Automatic annotation (TrEMBL):
Transmembrane portions of the chain: 6-28, 77-95, 107-129
A GO CC term attached to the entry: membrane
Keyword field contains Acyltransferase: no
Listed name of the protein: MAPEG family protein
Keywords for this protein: Membrane, Transmembrane, Transmembrane helix
Database matches in Pfam families: MAPEG
Entry-linked InterPro entries: Membr-assoc_MAPEG
Native species: Roseobacter insulae
């Protein structure tokens, strides 16, 4: 029987705990503005929605890649480092997007996310091919 990917489960719990306050921030802004659908003309609501939306667009696939690397036998330290860099990347991206749509932090967070996802995908393929 295959062992559960413990490191990925740890990071999944952390990402869930990070996502909940993001969602609450959107809800609080909706309650304050009375805008219950879309964003109206409220720039702050739009930033909150996109910051949370971007998080939820990338994190699930990244966690699948993290689990794939762990399940296929990547070293635990490697999976832990990738998970940590991914978490840092997503927090940088979120904070930057909340501040400004043109913030350089968005580029940094996005680049770090893409790098981790690419490394994880390559690791999975290498593990499956028996190269590692």
């Amino acid at each position: 029987m295959l062992e559960a990917p413990q490191i990925t489960l740890f990071f999944t719990a952390i990402f869930v705990l990070v996502s909940v306050p993001m969602s609450i921030m959107v809800g609080l802004r909706r309650a304050k503005t009375g805008i219950m659908l879309l964003h109206g003309d409220d720039e702050d609501l739009l930033k909150r929605m996109r910051a949370h939306g971007n998080f939820t667009e990338y994190v699930p696939l990244a966690l699948l890649a993290l689990a794939g690397a762990e399940i296929t036998g990547a070293p635990g330290w490697f999976v832990m480092v990738c998970g940590g860099v991914l978490l840092l990347a997503r927090l940088i991206h979120y904070a930057a997007l909340r501040r400004s749509a043109t913030s350089g932090g968005r580029l940094v967070g996005a680049a770090m996310t893409s790098l981790v996802m690419t490394v994880l995908a390559a690791t999975i393929l290498a593990q499956l091919a028996g190269m590692v």
